[in-house]
Amino acid sequence: MSARRILTGKRLGMTDICNGEENIVVEVENLIDDKEISKIRYTPVNVRGTGIGSSDPSEIIYSGCDCVNLCADNCPCVVRFGPSYNSDGCILVQSCSKPIVECNSMCICGSSCPNRIVQNGLQFKLQVFRTKHKGWGLRTLQDIPLNRFVCEYAGEVIGYKEAYRRAAQQQEDDSNYIIILKEHLTRGKVVKTCVDPTTIGNIGRYINHSCDPNLCMLAVRVDNEIPKLGLFARRKIHQNEELSFDYAGEASLSHEDNAAKNVIEESINKQEAGGVVERKLGACRADGTLALKQCYCETKCCRGFLPRDNDLYSVLENAVDGGSV
Ligand SMILES: C[S@@+](CC[C@H](N)C(=O)[O-])C[C@H]1O[C@@H](n2cnc3c(N)ncnc32)[C@H](O)[C@@H]1O
């Protein structure tokens, strides 16, 4: 049985894509069995995958602000939808029901601008560890305050049909990493963003599902309309606690908050897209039928099975791919 190992991204096979984070230190602990962690290509941010047309998550499309001092309520990036974060870097609860748009690569303001949070990456020391029944999981080695950004769920951004194709190839026991984020606009329009960190991804891929999770996933836009999938603490998270989010997207920032269920106004400008995570992809049998996996979140409100996305049976033809409105 192996124990604790401190590995760099390179040693994990998490190599070479971007931002100089290829040497990211990832602590891996396995006190359960002899299983080695599989190699992936590490990317801290989304990368372009198959089936999203000409969209590219690294493209810079939005125009920037020219705030010389730190961006405040009069910054054009903030004015448009109202502030998303407070001065302590915490997400505001109302951000659940409005687009979250950060300052971007064209903005004059620097990296310490309070409207740059998700793009600044990890702020807390996290550890990949072996769980008893859920494969690998991710936990925090530090306390995390309520509403702070924890990590991105990053990987290949792919089209909806490609997500379906990949899901259909999964074996019943395979872990599923594909997330489909659905943002509801007016007139029944739904924008789907599919992120697959199965072979190219960041440490968000190790976060397991819980029916009573400590994280909430929100769409955050920076340089273009393809959102980053940001995971924020929906309560105080204690050192060594496993991180989790609801794969069904049912957990919003706080237990009382129903704002995330609101349908947001469709915007004229693509930059204004935003909304809520609704449902994610469940495990799919090779014959295209969906297999329900038993949930081991061990919470009092456990629903028994991992969430699945019934839409995959029928709506392929109507899919809007790649985060474009
Ligand atoms: C995004 S991955 C999470 C990391 C994964 N555990 C691993 O070992 O790489 C999702 C997969 O983890 C497993 N999983 C996640 N949450 C679970 C839960 N609450 N109960 C059982 N299995 C879970 C399922 O196999 C699921 O398809």
From TrEMBL:
Domain (SET) ranges: 124-248
InterPro entries: H3K9_Histone-Lys_N-MTase (IPR050973), Post-SET_dom (IPR003616), Pre-SET_dom (IPR007728), SET_dom (IPR001214), SET_dom_sf (IPR046341)
Xref: CDD domains: SET_SETMAR (cd10544)
Boundaries of every Post-SET domain copy: 291-307
Location of the protein in the cell: Chromosome
Gene: LOC100372202
Keywords: Chromosome, Metal-binding, Methyltransferase, S-adenosyl-L-methionine, Transferase, Zinc
Pfam families: Pre-SET, SET
Major site of localization recorded for this protein: nucleus
The protein's name: Histone-lysine N-methyltransferase SETMAR-like
Domain Pre-SET, chain residue ranges per copy: 63-121
